[in-house]
Specification:
The protein has helices at 5-14, 16-24, 28-35, 95-99, 103-132, 200-219, 232-241, 275-280, and strands at 39-41, 46-52, 77-83, 86-94, 151-152, 159-160, 174-175, 178-179, 193-196, 227-230, 249-252, 261-266, 269-273, 291-295, 300-304, 317-324, 330-343, 350-353. It is α+β, with helices and mostly antiparallel strands. The strands form five sheets. A seven-stranded mixed beta sheet has the order 9-18-14-10-13-12-11. Strands 1, 4, 15, 16 and 17 form a five-stranded mixed beta sheet that branches. Residues 308-313 have low confidence and may be disordered.
Length: 358
Amino acid sequence: MTVRNDVLLATTEDLLPKLEQIFVDGHPAMERIWDKLDKRQSGGEYAAFDVMIDGPGDATQIVGGSEAYTYGNKNVIKQGRVYIPEVVYSYAVLGKDLRRTQGPSGVVKLIEKYPESAMMHLKQEVVRQFVTGTANINGLGGFLTLNGTQTYTPDTTANNGVLDFAAQASQTDTVLNLAKEGAASGVTGWYNQYGSASSFATDGKRTMRDVYNKCKIRGGKYGNPDIGLCDSTSFNNYYDSLDDQVRYSVKSKGEEGSDSVEGLMFHQLKLFVEPVIDDELSAQFSGKNGVMMFLNTQTWHMLTLGSDDSQETKGLFSTRTVGQLQGRDAFGHELVIAMQPYCDFLKANGIIEGTATI
């Protein structure tokens, strides 16, 4: 039988919930930093969010009973800003594949070959952009990156990556439209935790513990950081430092039909190998000799662009087809994505370097 292009598109739309799950499953960063977040819809491409830098009131000691209370209008809320980029991932479905599809099993293989493969490829490169600040395909440079040594460009202006490899007083970049605390007019409390290990054997776990505790204490009501991403050498250094009796693994959901991704516990944080850090360690994390990122996912959120499918996306994704491509025996298909993550309590998150040095 021949499968028409419009039937393939309709089937893909019906399978969008499953495809979105493919996008987040099997990767700790996607599963915990994207899928579990507050997907509020923004009314436009630019969106503001509140950052609390202090308590809203003052206290008055009562001695004689006639003291006047202070009801000041304290300026304790700063506004960060994000730009939500819209990205179209386009691919061609060959006409011969549509004509040669036989039976239900053939349709399943067609779905696996095109929309599922497209979604997995897009996921891989969005993760690379999010964690390292670079992607191997064009068009993803507008998504936020955790890597403070890199920039991302959501509109026409380059923005700094979120996590700086610097002490609190030396963090002077503007992140999410707010100057970090170390800048001349920086926002109080707007900084990330940072640690540098001379070698893992010397002070690796001590540095991990120091950054973890700072994140937890400064995190206040948000508690401890709960997800850690690192290169494989740093992970193995931590693994080898543990006694056999206290080693135990934690799991992140695997992609459908595959094994779970295994990690290790560090206090109440789940630490996982992040392969894209390995891939980009020499290029995007030059001179860092290993990287660990400690993230408090309660302080992270995500905005989608809207819900008008003719202009924007319904949620994470929308699908479109442009019909037969001119002069080709192929049909154009598109995955449309419009979203941006952001953090509104930066000091509950941290980054460490030097953990790959033994």
